[in-house]
Design a protein that fits this description.
Elements (H helix, E strand, L loop, with lengths): L2 E4 L2 E7 L5 H8 L4 H5 L8 H6 L2 H12 L11 E6 L2 E10 L4 H5 L16 E9 L8 H15 L4 E4 L20 H7 L2 E4 L7 E5 L5
Parallel strand pairs: 5-6
Antiparallel strand pairs: 1-2, 2-3, 3-4, 4-5, 6-8, 7-8
Helix pairs in contact: 6-7
């Protein structure tokens, strides 16, 4: 995929199967929420989430991303490199792959949306590596996610970010869904605001300029 020049350097984004597993784990780190979750929160129902530990979640992620297999036509997200160093991750797949999204109230409130629509993809998670933040990595990933999904036949892509306001505290997991501004800058538009802090952002390829 094309490189994206930002004020913080040159960001190159690739499908995760074209990156190495070591690079992806360098992004997640060895401590903190990303390392513990391994981007499985939206992939698992509550019962499975409670019964799995970080090692099992990492095993599942490794199966999903196919890191180190560029010939594979299946992967679960994108990896960003900033000036050649692994810097960020974005989860993007058909919406149906995210069990928790399908069961949550927020994505569907106030919308007449067919949950089983196979043409709709979703961007559910961003992780930026410590030391690489505030340098345009998430924005480059959001833009690349549109191209990635469209090239694989998606009709639309959604995200479920939070609205950041100065002084507000965030609960676990809110930071990883991305901010409204990241999606807006990539070309997503707000289609609903189910809560004061959460919005649904969407890009429909048929109507995109």
């Amino acid at each position: 995929m094309a490189a994206d020049a930002t004020a913080g350097g040159a960001v190159r984004v690739v499908p995760a199967n074209e990156a190495s597993w070591d690079d992806l784990q360098a992004i997640f780190g060895t401590r903190g929420d990303a390392s513990w979750c391994q981007c499985q929160y939206f992939k698992l129902a509550n019962s499975e989430w409670r019964s799995t530990g970080s090692d099992e979640r990492a095993r599942r992620l490794r199966d999903q991303v196919n890191c180190g297999h560029p010939e594979s036509d299946s992967t679960a997200g994108l990896v960003a490199y900033l000036d050649g160093e692994p810097a960020g991750w974005c989860a993007v797949e058909p919406r149906l792959e995210y069990v928790r999204v399908m069961r949550m109230r927020i994505p569907w409130t106030g919308r007449d949306e067919d949950r089983a629509d196979t043409g709709v993809w979703a961007v559910t998670c961003f992780v930026t590596r410590v030391g690489f933040r505030r340098r345009g990595v998430s924005r480059a990933l959001a833009r690349a996610a549109l191209e990635f999904a469209r090239d694989r036949g998606a009709r639309a892509v959604e995200g479920y970010p939070i609205v950041l306001r100065p002084g507000q505290e965030m609960s676990w997991g809110e930071l990883f869904v991305g901010s409204r501004s990241v999606f807006a800058d990539a070309g997503f538009v707000e289609v609903s605001r189910p809560t004061a802090r959460r919005v649904v952002m969407r890009a429909d390829f048929g109507s995109r300029p």
